[in-house]
Specification:
Length: 222
């Protein structure tokens, strides 16, 4: 049973969330302020539902402290619907941002989607991936070609990992944005093209195929 930490100072909303989440099969622990949230957070927490306007320490500060020790999925719940507030949350690497009032069925589906992405990411981190003379080590976060290490940025590594995890399948730009940028990307999808270009240059080999008008793939080896 996956554990969700609900951080909400409104007792009625906290109780509503707790009851609904428990009914659909989650274990729930609750905190009414930021200090209590940090005290309760642990590696056993699968996801955090985090209100912004909470006592003692606001949601932004809580998020920042959690991000220093964990990449656990975080969904912000807030009445603040301004673009500035949302951008601030996204800059702190929250996985989704939901404004109040919200639909409980939609929230449940968003939680399930975020957890699926997180579980997929964790699976990819626990193995070595191969393609021809390239080895990507997800534990040590290293990439070698013919035994020689290649220096990649964090995002380049993640793009390469996703392509290797999905060998033989075309990943569109939006697929990669959804998997790696961890929130709806309101920008130019060509940022993916830039990372692919850099990967090809740094690796010195070109096994990433461009599927014109669709996306990219690495051909699955027989």
């Amino acid at each position: 049973m996956q554990r969700i930490l609900v951080v909400e100072d409104d007792s009625d909303i906290q109780e509503l969330l707790q009851n609904f989440l428990q009914e659909v099969g989650y274990e729930v622990i609750t905190a009414k302020d930021g200090v209590e949230a940090i005290a309760l957070f642990s590696e056993q927490v699968a996801l955090v539902l985090l209100d912004i306007m909470i006592p003692k320490m606001d949601g932004y500060a809580v998020c920042e402290l959690i991000r220093r020790q964990s990449d656990v999925p975080i969904i912000m719940l807030t009445a603040l619907d301004s673009e500035k507030a949302q951008i601030k949350g996204l800059d702190l690497q929250v996985d989704d941002y939901i404004t109040k009032p919200f639909s409980m069925p939609i929230l449940i589906r968003k939680i399930a989607a975020v957890l699926r992405r997180s579980n997929h990411s964790q699976e990819g981190k626990k193995q070595k991936l191969y393609c021809k003379n390239l080895v990507l080590d997800c534990d040590s976060y290293t990439v070698t070609v013919d035994g020689t290490a290649c220096s990649l940025t964090h995002r380049e590594f993640e793009v390469l990992r996703e392509l290797l995890l999905h060998q033989g399948r075309v990943l569109t730009r939006q697929n990669l944005l959804d998997l790696l940028w961890r929130y709806d990307f309101y920008g130019d999808g060509r940022v993916v093209d830039t990372h692919i270009k850099n990967l090809r240059k740094k690796l010195g080999i070109d096994f990433i195929q461009t599927i014109r008008g669709v996306g990219y793939k690495i051909e699955k080896e027989n």
